[in-house]
């Protein structure tokens, strides 16, 4: 029996596991998919918000600001890309300028440091290619960007190194409780525990109602994006938001930590995880983004994708013990700024548990990890690595300069990949201009060999996404 079961291996669940694994307790994570960070976490802009947007006194404000302050040090410990690029909220008229003043005052109340109101000249000095419509901005110097999937994978890798059991492909089907012991039935078996942390994202209300009364409703909201080539990434230096209006926060134009440009999202209420992209919405995003930059060349688009945010009917994060089920805790409604807030939310879960019983910290705890990023090494370091292991001298992904050695390293990690996209999330292989057109076959060959499977068992991503189905004729494969 476990002390704690965490349901959901997105960034909030994995952050919780990371911090709880510092303590003497037994922990399991149950995840529906065959990899972590495979829901909302993997499909967002990667922005670590400064904290001027949430209403003062809200849980969003509290954990956004705290998470923003924690993120840089945590990314350094986990060897995760982090870029303190800063952000601008752009104004287009005097009404927007007034809104910037309100956001500034809200940020000050929330405890955000290094916030500045800039005029048009000061704004263009930071971002010369802004559209002519921009008349000023709110500059948040503490805003940053990260790689959200590598961040989440790193959190859970360290957690697993410290004793957490990660149970992938375990969809929760039912939850019961008897004599203060929960029994969680999944698609693969049953697990018992004394405490449950519900971090199931867009399904967190459904998971809660498997055992408790209805206390909140999750409203899935889809957002679509453009991912543009690095040739466009050179045009933007900061994360650019449009001034909020009655239509929402507007379409963002952002750099990524890998040098691309990402544009989006919109906001569309949907039913569960519908990740389709549509020409209508993508055209809307192109049109709205011109308010920010009218020089974006969308012909340099290399991928479109959609993500689903888990908004709730409370307009705030839901971070609380269930009112109807003792020792069942909900971490739900993690819409923006959920990525930023996740590390702070996970950090404080132990505070709840310690009100029930005292958990002590482990004497020996591994809180860091280190990975090889071959393209970032010096010439001398590269030669040294190749001399030790020739696999580092073989480039598999030419666009992103990912070596065979880095891909092989994934299979020696605490959570080896189970799919081609699993390798992509860990190494960036296939994330470049050709989107795996040249390296995909080589990656598939490595996956086949390391997992000891047949070609028709190779998955692109989630279970059921087989890239080959049947032989066309004898001798194929």
The outline comes out as globular
CATH topology name of the largest domain: D-Amino Acid Oxidase, Chain A, domain 2
Helix content: 25-40%
How many runs of DSSP E, i.e. beta strands? 22
End-to-end distance: 45 Å
Radius of gyration: 23 Å
Structural class: alpha+beta
What is the second-level CATH architecture of the largest domain? 2-Layer Sandwich
> Strand share of the residues?
15-25%
**How many separate helices?**
13
Would you state the CATH class of the largest domain?
A: Alpha Beta
Looking at the chains present, what oligomeric state does this protein adopt?
single chain
Biggest sheet overview: 8 strands, mixed
Uncertain runs are none
CATH superfamily of the largest domain: D-Amino Acid Oxidase, subunit A, domain 2
Mean pLDDT: 95
Total separate domains? 3
Question: What does this entry look like structurally?
Answer:
This protein folds into three domains: 2-40 and 149-217 and 314-356, FAD/NAD(P)-binding domain (3-Layer(bba) Sandwich); 82-145 and 219-311, D-Amino Acid Oxidase, Chain A, domain 2 (2-Layer Sandwich); 374-457. Helix content is 30%, strand content 23%. The chain contains 13 helices and 22 strands. The chain has helices spanning 11-20, 59-78, 94-110, 120-126, 148-161, 204-208, 230-233, 279-289, 338-356, 379-388, 404-410, 420-427, 440-451; strands at residues 2-7, 27-30, 47-48, 82-83, 87-91, 115-119, 136-140, 144-146, 165-167, 172-178, 181-186, 189-198, 218-228, 239-242, 252-255, 261-264, 268-269, 301-312, 318-321, 328-332, 395-397, 402-403. Strands 1, 2, 9, 10, 11, 12, 19 and 20 form an eight-stranded mixed sheet that branches.
């Amino acid at each position: 029996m476990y002390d704690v079961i965490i349901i959901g291996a997105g960034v909030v669940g994995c952050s919780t596991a990371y911090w709880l694994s510092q303590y003497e307790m037994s922990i399991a994570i149950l995840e529906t998919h065959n990899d972590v960070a495979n829901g909302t976490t993997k499909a967002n802009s990667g922005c670590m918000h400064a904290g001027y947007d949430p209403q003062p006194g809200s849980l969003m404000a509290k954990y956004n600001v705290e998470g923003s302050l924690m993120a840089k040090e945590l990314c350094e410990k986990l060897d995760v890309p982090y870029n303190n690029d800063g952000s601008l909220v752009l104004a287009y008229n005097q009404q927007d300028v007034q809104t910037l003043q309100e956001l500034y005052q809200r940020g000050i109340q929330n405890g955000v440091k290094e916030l500045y109101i800039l005029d048009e000249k000061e704004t263009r000095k930071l971002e010369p290619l802004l559209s002519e419509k921009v008349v000023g901005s709110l500059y948040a110097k503490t805003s940053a960007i990260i790689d959200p999937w590598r961040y989440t994978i790193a959190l859970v890798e360290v957690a697993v190194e410290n004793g957490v059991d990660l149970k992938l492909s375990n969809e929760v089907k039912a939850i019961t409780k008897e004599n203060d012991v929960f029994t969680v039935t999944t698609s693969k078996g049953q697990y018992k525990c004394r405490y449950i942390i519900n971090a199931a994202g867009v399904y967190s209300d459904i998971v809660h109602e498997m055992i408790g009364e209805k206390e909140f409703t999750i409203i899935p909201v889809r957002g679509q994006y453009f991912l543009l080539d690095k040739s466009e990434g050179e045009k933007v230096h900061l994360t650019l938001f449009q001034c909020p209006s009655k239509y929402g926060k507007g379409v963002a134009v952002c750099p990524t930590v890998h040098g691309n440009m990402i544009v989006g999202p919109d906001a569309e209420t949907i039913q569960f995880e519908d990740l389709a992209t549509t020409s209508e919405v993508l055209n809307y995003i192109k049109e709205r983004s011109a308010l920010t930059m009218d020089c974006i060349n969308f012909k340099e688009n290399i991928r479109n994708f959609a993500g689903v945010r888990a908004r709730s009917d409370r307009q705030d994060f839901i971070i609380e013990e269930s009112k109807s089920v003792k020792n069942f805790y909900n971490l739900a409604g993690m819409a923006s700024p959920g990525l930023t807030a996740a590390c702070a939310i996970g950090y404080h879960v132990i505070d709840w548990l310690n009100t029930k019983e005292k958990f002590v910290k482990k004497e020996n705890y591994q809180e860091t990890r280190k990975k090889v990023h071959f393209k970032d090494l010096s010439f001398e370091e590269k030669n040294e690595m190749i001399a030790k292991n020739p696999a580092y001298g073989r480039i598999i992904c030419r666009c992103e300069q990912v070596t065979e050695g880095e891909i092989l390293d994934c299979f020696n990690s605490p959570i080896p990949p189970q799919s081609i996209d699993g390798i992509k999330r860990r190494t960036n292989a296939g994330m470049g201009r050709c989107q795996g057109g040249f390296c995909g076959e080589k990656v598939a060959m490595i996956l086949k060999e390391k997992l000891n499977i047949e070609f028709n068992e190779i998955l692109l991503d989630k279970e059921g996404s087989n890239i080959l189905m049947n032989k066309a004729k004898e001798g194929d494969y």
